[in-house]
Amino acid sequence: MEKSKSAATAQSGSDVILSVRNLKKHFPITSGFIIQRQVGAVRAVDDVSFDVIRGETLGLVGESGCGKSTTGRAILQLHKPTAGNVLFEGKELTTMAPPDMRRMRRQMQIIFQDPFASLNPRMTVGSIISEPLQIHNIYPNKTERQDFVESLLQRVGLNPYFINRYPHEFSGGQRQRIGIARALALSPSFIVCDEPISALDVSIQAQVVNLLEDLQQELGLTYLFIAHDLSMVRHICDRVAVMYLGKIVELGRTDEVYDNPLHPYTQALLSAVPVPDPTVEEKRQRIIIRGDLPSPANPPLGCNFNTRCPVEFELCHHAPDPELIEVTPGHWAACHRVTQY
Amino acid sequence: MDHSLKNSQVAQLDTEGDIPKTSSRSFWLDAILQFLRDKLSLFALSTLVFLTLVCVLAPPFVENQLGVDVERTNTKARFFAPLTDGHFLGTDEYGRDQLIRLLYGGRISLAIAYSASFMIIAIGVTLGLVSGFYGGWIDDVITWVVNTLSSMPPLFILLIVSALWSPSPQILVIILALLGWFGTCRLVRGEVLSLKERDYILAAKAVGASNFRLIFIHIFPNVLSLVIVTGSIIAGNLILLESGLSYLGLGVQPPTPTWGNMLTDARNFLVTGIHLIVFPGILIMITVLCFYLIGDGLRDALDPRRKYGEKK
Question: Chain A contacts of B202, Cβ < 8 Å?
């Protein structure tokens, strides 16, 4: 009871579309033949809780391998979570029967990072975008379906004339637009954007981000925006959650987190962002984190971050991992330094 | 000046992707055209088709026209050289016409190659798809069977099996298929394991695709090119294997002719009937070479890294 209270819940009164509570995704390390024994687990996502408010863009940032993408996929039940709850529009997804889950998928979609891996090379653009329609039997009439797919192509800024083309005929940015059109086909209300721009050229990134922003305004979409480009996150996100080794270490309004980072990891991350102003850039103090990311199969004792933390002290090594605590209204952090003072 | 610069920048943005203006062709159509453009592959394919058609269609015609019979022996007409007495390719040690025996033998040899390789592909692909896609205990069992059976020397198993049933062509096909699918299964399983982690499979799951749809719409078409190439190489190997088995006396039993057992019988008559060795030998060689060349051509044509529509 106490635990769920301490989770990073949104302020009362706001319209929550998605609640994640104590979500865990552990990938088992097994050995043995036919009868498998579990000899360990990779704790890709380890006890993550947060809320997503309708219409907002929640950023999820962190370095490679910290569990950002796994969190996104576990929310959509693409990876079955090991433990925890995911409530979408108040309905529990983790225990939902497959037919109900399939119906639920109409409201939640995903856009992938690599536009070259996310489109089946053997399918035309038309059949890629109309596949969700076929599965859910929307527009059973073939010409109506074709019209709708063409309008979707137009909506994401592609020529409807491309409908019979194959993915290899497009550039990265265009492929990403196709991926966005596929996600939009079911008119979802919530989209997980799994690093949708990090594989694109910088010149194309802005176009795709603008498209995502336009679509959000027009269709009232809610985004969970997974990224590691901190300046892009600042631009597009209303709130941001910072992940480290499978846990959220800081969560708050974007301005608040960027201007006043509480967790030493967030501070180090933000200090690495270059500033496009030579005089500021010269004075910029970088906080260098020592060492490497510990293995998520064998996280350190005490605080997850204590092996690399620049300000770690006694407590960090033997007290249990710090919980995410609301330090100032709407700004949460999980650090003994912050909560002890 | 300023204006034209602006225009050129706009133009640069518009050409992003550099899409060819020609209409789009499907991957398979494109691959076929690519294959047919390769002269060597085209030659190999036409040779193989020609050989197959001749073996299937020609025997009744040859029998009528030349008045020969595949079973009829003639002690007075032994070891005729080619072009003697109405025997185009001469006669063998029993005075049987070699041309008609080669045609009938080709029917059986090619039928074994085609049907056994088809069965190998069917078994291997099915089990490979199931094993790779579902994983878990099914995968464990199939992998275990594959590993165990492929660690037994196949020749040894063939020896035992053909000692138990002296093989007719039908039984031989089944034996060859049952002993030949491991490699294909392993190949397909590996490919499926890598394919099923691709983002487009996750994307299909995210829109609610069933397992059936994932396997048959998303995974199978992507392993098909691999399978086709393997199939043609396997067919070539089977022709060789059939000859090898005949040499050991384990293949199709005489008097039913196959290219393999004709070659084997002829080895005793190196001096008296060199033509009995040359013709079956050349036919085996040409057929196997054709299968391999077709395999090579298909591999090039189906390579996804190949530039689409590019001329060689």
Answer: 73, 78, 110, 112, 118
The per-residue pLDDT for range B102-154, each reduced to its tens digit, is 888 888 889 999 999 999 999 999 999 999 999 888 998 999 999 998 888 87
> Would the CB atoms of B205 and A117 count as touching at under 8 Å?
no
Which strand (E) or helix (H) includes residue A74?
helix A68-75
pTM of the predicted model, to two decimals?
0.80
- Collapsing DSSP to helix, strand or coil, B63 comes out as helix
Query: What one-letter code names the amino acid at A158?
Result: L
Q: Within 13 Å and on the Cβ side, how many CA atoms surround B152? A: 15
Look up residue B145 and give its amino acid: V
- Could you give the CA distance from residue A225 to residue A221 in angstroms, rounded to a whole number? 12
CA dist., res. A52 & res. A264, Å (int): 24
CATH topology of domain B39-311: MetI-like fold (1.10.3720)
pLDDT digits (tens, 9 = 90+) for B191-250: 999 998 888 999 999 998 888 999 988 999 888 888 888 998 898 888 888 888 888 877
Look-up of token digits 């039940």: A77
In 3D space, the residue among B145, B179, B183 whose CA is nearest the CA of residue B162 turns out to be B179
Distance from C-alpha of A77 to C-alpha of B208, rounded to nearest angstrom: 11
What whole-number distance in Å separates Cα of residue A136 and Cα of residue B178?
41
Residues 6+ apart with CB under 8 A from B192: B128, B129, B131, B132, B133, B219, B223
ipTM: 0.84
Yes or no, beta carbons of B17 and A174 under 8 Å apart? yes
